[in-house]
Specification:
- It is an enzyme of class 4 (lyase).
- It comes from Moraxella macacae 0408225.
- The protein is an alpha/beta fold.
- It folds into two domains: 124 residues, Rossmann fold (3-Layer(aba) Sandwich); 150 residues, Rossmann fold (3-Layer(aba) Sandwich).
- The chain is built from 13 helices and ten strands.
- α1 links the parallel β1 and β2.
- The radius of gyration is 21 Å and the shape is elongated.
Length: 284
């Protein structure tokens, strides 16, 4: 069996490192084939205005470690140009607001936030995560947080995210009358090197083995389909040649609506979760 790890390099390396040694003894190989590369994008003037007025929002939500990184890069630039009392007062506002009103999608994102906050403000903040309430670290977990569930109509929140990401979170809250602003601080592109990695795999004997593909977002699925198309593998029969591990039931629903049924849901991408699911597939 071949497990195709499609996580971005900065996230997928940890997964592969933990899995490779454990799975080799079970005759499962790991192929790193990132479908997404995260790159910083230019923050628009209208979004800079949102970041300058964080006190307008009841909560600021960070959806990934990269969102935290790019946000604080902006804060660092803002801090660098603080040359008079008004600007220094704004920095104090940043510190007070971020110390009390922030939510992270998961513990790794929260850890990244705390590290960058301490670097910028020499103080450890508090930040809420779904896992603190025994909830999954995803959109569904965020929506089940009491802090989010209890938001009243016309309350304003700000989501720091990547381009085209977290539409479920935004749309669900807007349907409840919550005013949702977003700032896109990075975008997700297809890594050019991955096409050659897949070409080498496609031409190898390993391609004949059972193949399990990890899909963690709709964007990753779209890039995967594009990749299959380039190798004439996009038809329904070819798609059935892969087994898909997908993060969350809503992604599984999208695949099944497109006629793909070899789909299994995982609630997180922790190495233990992935390993258990792969071993269950191997024994199936």
């Amino acid at each position: 069996m071949i497990f195709i790890n499609t996580r971005p390099l900065d996230r997928g390396n940890n997964l592969s490192r933990f899995l490779t040694s454990d799975l080799q003894s079970c005759h499962i190989q790991v192929l790193d084939l990132p479908l997404l590369e995260l790159v910083a994008c230019k923050i628009r003037a209208i979004d800079k205005q949102k970041l300058a007025n964080l006190d307008h929002y009841q909560y600021i939500v960070f959806v990934s470690e990269r969102a935290v990184s790019e946000f604080f890069n902006h804060v660092a630039n803002f801090n660098h140009v603080a040359k008079h009392k008004v600007a220094k007062h704004n920095i104090a506002r940043y510190k007070a607001i971020l110390n009390a009103n922030c939510i992270a999608v998961g513990q790794k994102t929260a850890t990244a936030f705390c590290e960058r906050f301490q670097q910028n403000f020499n103080h450890l903040p508090t930040i809420l995560t779904p896992s603190q309430c025994n909830l999954p670290e995803n959109n569904e977990g965020l929506l089940q947080l009491d802090a989010i569930k209890n938001l009243q109509a016309n309350t304003k929140i700000l989501i720091i995210k990547g381009n085209n990401g977290r539409t479920l979170l935004k749309n669900t809250l807007q349907q409840r009358g919550v005013i949702v602003d977003t700032v896109d601080v990075y975008e997700r592109i297809f890594p050019i090197a991955s096409q050659q990695i897949f070409a080498n795999f496609y031409q190898s004997a390993d391609f004949c083995q059972n193949k399990v593909v990890l899909i963690t977002s709709i964007t990753a699925w779209q890039y995967w389909q594009n990749l299959l198309t380039k190798f004439d593998l996009a038809n329904a029969a070819a798609k059935q040649g892969f087994v898909y591990l997908v993060l969350q039931a809503r992604i599984a629903k999208v695949l099944k609506e497109q006629g793909v049924y070899n789909v299994h849901v995982v609630n997180d991408v922790n190495p233990t979760t992935i390993q258990q699911k792969l071993l269950s597939q191997q024994n199936y």
